[in-house]
Design brief:
single chain, five-stranded mixed β-sheet, 7 helices, disordered N terminus
């Protein structure tokens, strides 16, 4: 349902509004907003999160190289992770203190599975959505052994 919105504030013209319309020789217009088409809305949010995940992995691996304490925590771990974002699915392996073999697609029997939608995932990664809130609202689901989840939390 469309609503009319007058460009002058309320039914009374302000002094500034009267002067501007007088100078321009125009009457105040009425603006009727058009709803965006569904296609344009979908087009705005269609994107791949693969570059973002790759960047996170690169930062994580760089941090591991410079942080001996983190390397010690990860020593001996070999875990697989699967990220399911609906149409986008990614997986990687944490092995030899680094994340390796990042690729698109599913894997069988991952140690940790993260399920979400691309918008929520990006929001969490950019800090716009708090991870615990997304988890509590079931916008992000994590499946796996708690110790495996804790070992991968440093990535995010």
């Amino acid at each position: 349902r469309l609503q009319e919105i007058s460009l002058n504030a309320g039914s009374e013209k302000t002094g500034l509004s009267r002067r501007i319309h007088g100078l321009l020789g125009k009457q105040p217009r009425t603006y009727i907003p058009r709803p965006r088409s569904r296609k344009s809305q979908i087009g705005l949010i269609e994107m791949s999160v693969e570059p973002m995940i790759q960047e996170l992995i690169d930062k994580f691996n760089t941090k591991v190289d410079s942080d001996e304490k983190l390397r010690d925590e990860l020593k001996g771990l070999s875990k697989t992770a699967f990220i399911d974002l609906g149409d986008e699915k990614y997986n990687f392996t944490l092995k030899d203190e680094h994340i390796q073999n990042f690729s698109a697609g599913e894997i069988e029997n991952p140690d940790v599975t993260i399920t979400s939608d691309p918008e929520t995932f990006v929001g969490v990664m950019e800090g716009k959505i708090k991870p615990m809130k997304a988890f509590a609202l079931r916008k992000v689901k994590i499946k796996g052994d708690i110790s495996d989840i804790m070992s991968l939390r440093k990535l995010f």
